[in-house]
Amino acid sequence: MRTGLPTIALILTLASVAPAAAIDVPQTRQEFVQAVAAGRGATAVETIRSEQPFQSVYALLQEKARTCLDVTVHRTAYVGYTERSSSDYNPTVRRVGKGRAEFTLQVIHTPRGVGHTPPPGGLYVMAADLRSAAGGRTEIVLYRPTMGFKKIVASLKRWLDGEPAPCPKIK
User: Which of 20, 87, 91, 139 maximizes the CB count within 10 A of its CB?
Assistant: First the structure.
């Protein structure tokens, strides 16, 4: 009966790993947007109407994404030993048609978490669809997390409204 204990330990180990391996991580921007729109996880969809023209919002977002969000954050902690980690933020702003654009923010965490395979460019954190609206305005649909990233979301909302707010402190 001594061989039963290692077998039980193996089964318990595999059972605890299976849920982590089953985490569904969006591999494309489209999958991320669909998951947020379906209400998966701690996420929200928000519509923002800016009084600013599309070109102004697009130019400001492009500048702020490049200067504020395209960063790598390095951390060191002592937890009985010295642990080093980093997060590499990768924003993308691109036109997808006349009067239409997309914003995407991805992050690569190092070391990588167990149980998921991130897409190229990192895990999807947020996205926004921008489009020119009547009266020289811009309409934005923001797909965002409801937990964490509050400073980034607050700054992003101000930029999307055409306000040149300062860069958020990213930790």
Answer: 91
